[in-house]
Structures are given as C-alpha cells and as structure tokens.
Amino acid sequence: MTDQFILGLVITSAPKSLLTDEGFEHVRVFTVAELEEHFGVKGSLHFDRCEDNLLSGHGKAAFAYWTKLFMLTEEEIEETNWDHNEALHVLIKKVRQFVRTHGLMVAKWHSFNERFDIAGPWSVQLFTPTAPPMIFNLGIQDMKWLASMEMEFGFCAKEDRWMELVKGAAEK
Questions:
Q1: Residue 159 above 80 pLDDT?
Q2: pLDDT tens, residue by residue, 82-129
Q3: Mind spelling out the 3-state secondary structure of the chain?
Q4: What is the pairing mode between strands 6-12 and 152-158?
Q5: Are 92 and 126 in contact, with CB atoms under 8 Å apart?
Q6: In which band, very low, low, confident or very high, does the pLDDT at 10 lie, cut at 50, 70 and 90?
Q7: What is the tens place of the pLDDT at every residue in 123-139?
Q8: Nearest-5° Cα angle at 78, 75 to 81
Q9: Which of 19, 122, 124, 125 is most buried, judging by how many CB atoms fall within 10 Å of its CB?
Q10: Count of CB atoms within 10 A of residue 79's CB?
Q11: For the chain, how far is it from start to end, CA to CA, in angstroms?
Q12: Which residues are bridge partners to 157 per DSSP?
C-alpha cells in the first residue's frame, strides 16, 4: 500500500470566524498568495479562508490551508520493496530536498509565524487511506531532522474522496 502514501509539508492558519470579526480582530490569517510569496514556493493543494473547505468536503473554511505534496514513483515503490518504513523515509528525503532547494529554513518559518497566526508549527503530514490499516515507524534520523527544522509529524487516514484529491494534486 505504499503507493497510497502521500506526504505533505503543511501550514495551517489559526481559525477566524466567518460570521463576525468581533472577538477575532487580532487574528491574522494568511492567504495562499502571501505564503507562497514569503517562501518563494508553489503548493500542491490549498485554500484560503472563506473558500471551500477541502478538508471536510463541505462549507467554507474559517482558516487557510497550504500543502506541498510528495508521493513515490513506481521505481521508488519497487526500490523500497513496498516496505512502509522505507517508503516513509524516501518521502521525508523528498521533503528535505524541497526544503533545501527552496531555502526554507527555520528563520524563514519564524518570520512568517510572526506575521500571521498559525494553528501550530509547520508540519509533515502522512496521508493514507482509511483501509487497510497501515503500520509504520518514523526513523530516528528523520525525527532528528524534523526536530531540527521545528516541524511536527502527523498521520491522517482519510476517506477515498480525499485520497483521490490529494493523489491528483501530488501527481501534478
């Protein structure tokens, strides 16, 4: 099932009410354009506050969401011999290369985080289908790199509709 592993570098803004600004005046929500200009990168899948919430599949989003997605090639799937742990390691190497190539350093993250309200640290999120259940381990060296970049790691099993959306965006 490693062909279904999709890894995203994810940044999510803090939520801000869609109904009223009262009590939310201080919340600064980024737009995708502001994020991409700051970091000098283009994302794979994103939406701004007040746009359709692609995460839930219904309604308008009270927050902004941006991700750059990575998936394994057919050759990489064969090289990893369908091993979940090795597949995750290869995907994290792709994120590392992207971060290095685009100069996405911790200081750049901090300067963005100071301008806008963010839901949490930038993160690396593994998306897989809900079935069959997947078991994997994140290697120590990959954890050390994530920690050095002040990134969190998350895992999210999603329904087929979301996985199709993510896979399509990752293939572009």
A1: yes
A2: 999 999 999 999 999 999 999 999 999 999 999 999 999 999 999 998
A3: CHHHCEEEEEEEECCCCCCCCCCCCCCCCCCHHHHHHHHCCCCCEEECCCCECCCCCCCECCCCEEEEEEECCHHHHHHCCCCHHHHHHHHHHHHHHHHHHCCCCHHHHHHHHHHCCECCCCEEEEEEECCCCCCCCCCHHHHHHHHHCCCEEEEEEECHHHHHHHHHHHHC
A4: unpaired
A5: no
A6: very high
A7: 999 999 887 788 899 99
A8: 150
A9: 124
A10: 13
A11: 21
A12: 128
Averaged pLDDT score across all residues of the chain:
92
Residues pairing with 13 in the sheet: 118
CA 55/CA 58 separation, integer angstroms? 8
Take residue 32 and report the two structure tokens written for it.
């995708």
CB 45 within 8 Å of CB 122: no
What is the pLDDT confidence band of residue 54, given thresholds at 50, 70 and 90?
confident
As a whole-number percent, the residues of the chain with pLDDT over 70 amount to: 99
> Angle 72-11-70 (CA atoms, 0-180°, nearest 5)?
5
What gap in Å lies between CA 163 and CA 8, rounded to an integer?
A: 12
Q: Is the separation of the CB atoms in 47 and 61 below 8 Å?
A: yes
Written as six digits, the tokens of 171 are 């293939």
Cα 170 to Cα 7, 67, 115, distances in angstroms: 9, 10, 28
